[in-house]
Every structure is written in structure tokens, then in C-alpha cells.
Amino acid sequence: MADMEQVQLVKQGRDAVAKWRDEHPNEVLDLNASYLSYARLHQVDLRGADIRDSDLMGAILVRANLSGCHLNPCHMYRADLRQADLSRSLMNGANLRGANLREANLANTDMDRAVLSDANLTGADLSHANMSRINLTGANLTNANLTGAVLHRAQLTHANLSGAILDGADFYEASFNDAELTETKFAGCIVGYTVFQNCDFSVAEGLDAVRHDAPSTIGLDTLYRSGGKISDLFLRSAGALESIVEFQKSLIGAPVPPGDCFISCSSQDAVFAQSLQTGLQSQGIRCWVFSEDTRGNALVERHSTSDQEEVERWIRPYDRLVVVCSEAGLDTEVVRNDIEQAQGLQQSKDQWLLYIVAPDSSLTGGRGRLGRTIASEHVVFDLSGQAGNTDEYGQELTRLAEALKVTQPRVEGIPKYGESL
User: Fold this and answer.
1) Domain finish residue from 230, 256, 282
2) Mean pLDDT over all residues of the chain?
3) What is the pTM of this model?
């Protein structure tokens, strides 16, 4: 257990810790299993401290010195570690989900099995770090330095690697899924049994200088998104058949398929949503039903350490979100949360991605304030004729499918997708 006097000392901040270090030059701070959640510790010098099993959720550690610390497996959810020095620290198994590590020094750290999903690692130094089995889902690694880092079995789903330096980085059995690779510098990195799913290699750099230690898997979606612009040498070195190398040439100039689309609905509307999914898929829309029932029970299946984190685990990354706004849907908290989250994403991405479907008259004829607000701020697709499979339903379904294929900035206002019925 932690030395409580030292814990209270650290909470006093930088100057108190600096004075203690002057008076105890050869001692190591014992903060084992301490509670430092939301502590304000700007520029504090904690180098070499034992902080194992501690709670640092939301702690402010901007420009703090944490080099050589034992931080395994600390809970550092949404901690502010901008420009912090974490070099040579032990962070294996630590939870840094949503943490801000912008321009932090993480060189030579041990982050085996650490969770850094949704973390901001822009400009961070990750050189020679052990990042085996790390979770980087949704992490921002723009301009990060991963020179010589080990990322065996790393998860890089929806990670942003724009401008990142990967020279000498080892991605053996790692998984790239919908990763942003604009100007990512692959030259000198190592791959083998690596999975590249739904990635655009046409904007990446240095693919011909990648070292292939074993075959890798390159998805058809990656071939399509790359528009036939993956180098033949990279494909052959990854183990692609010659027929695949020739096939990708036919994709040059082909239209890029729409991104991932999910259909949000209440449990009562699941059957309607499944029928809608079938109709949209027949018109070239890649979509999946994300009903209330698929999300589990937050009170029974809790694997997170905060309510906010649990809610975030329910959110799936998407390019388009169709919301079934029936009377039951508008009364469902999950559906209302999906609408709110999508509106926030529209604001931050400046891209229209929320599409409202009306399976009944709750929006068009209802008296509820929420329904009226949604109808006034969004395009509403009237699909109330689904049960009878009417011509009007077919036409409106086609209008929705065509709308999902179009990208429009949010700043331009409510889109107009043909004439509503």
C-alpha cells in the first residue's frame, strides 16, 4: 500500500514534491494503489515512483516527469499527459483510454496489453516502445514517431496514423482496420501475418521499402479504397496471388464505395430495421442493424470503471447512421443517445451523417417536442409503407439509399435528397 503521507505530499503539487526530493535525494516515492483521480499535478517530478495499481483517472499531469515509473496497471482514463515524460516507464496493462498524450515522451516504455483506445498521441515519441497487444482503437497518432517500436498483435482499428514514422516498427500479427494512412511513412517497417482491412494505401508512403517476414492479409475493401494504387511489389511481397495484382488494376478510377452505415433502433423496431437493411443492401449500401438489444446491459455486464466509459463502449464508429424514429424509438434512451452523439459528430466533422427514418406518424403527425425538433432539423424519410411494400415505400427507400451515397458538409445546412413523397 501507498505511504499516505507521500500521497498527500504529491497532491500538494510540484513545489512540495521538489522540496521533498531535495531533502530525500535517494528515496523513491511510494504511491502504490493510491487514489489520485482528477489530481492537478502540473510539472510534478515523480520519476522512478511506484504508482502501481493507482487511480489517475482524469488527473492533470501536463509536462510531468514520470520517467522510469511503475504505472502497471494504472487506471489513467482521460488523464491529461500532454508533453509528459513517460520514457522507460512500465505501463503494461494500463488503461489510458481517451488520455491526452500529445507530444508526450513514451520512448522505451513497456505498454504490453495497455489500452490507449481514443487516446491523443499526436506528435508523441513512441520510439523503441514495447506496444505488443496494445489497443489503439480510435487513437490519434498523427505525426507520431514509432521508430523501432514493437507492435506485435496490436489493434489499430480506426487509428489515425497520418504522417507517422514507422521506420523499424514491427507489426507482426497486428491488425489495421479503417486506419487513416495519409502520408504515413511505412519505409523500413516490418509486417508478417498482418491484417490490412478497409485501408487506403493510395495516400501512404514507402510501401516498397516495407520488410515482409511472412505473408499478410489485404482485404478486398482495402483494394477498392486504394483505387488500384497499391504497388505491385507490396502486394506480391505480402503474398497476394498474381491474379489479385492484375485485378487491382481494374479498380483504377472506380468509384469509392460508401462507408459503414449502422441502423439504430429500439428492440421493438428490430424487425423493421432488418427489413430496411435488406432493402438498402440490395441498393449497394453496406449497413448493419445496431438495435437496443445488441448493446447488453450496462448494470449486469459492466467491464468499465466509469459510467462515461461504459457509454462510450456502446458507440460504434460509423460513416452514416440511420435512426428509426418510431414512437417506441423516441421513447428509448439508447436511440435518443444515438441521435445526440450523431449530432455532435456532425458538428465536429462538419459532415452530414444522420438520417432519420419514420416508420409511423410519430414524427410527421406526433405532438411530442422531441419529434417536432428532429423533423425540423433533419431530412425525414417516410417509410411507413414498408408493411404493404407499396410503390411509395420503394421510391422512398431508393431516395434514402441515394442520400447515403452522397457526402455533404454540415455547414451547408439541411441536405435536399430529391423530392420527398
Assistant:
1) 256
2) 90
3) 0.83
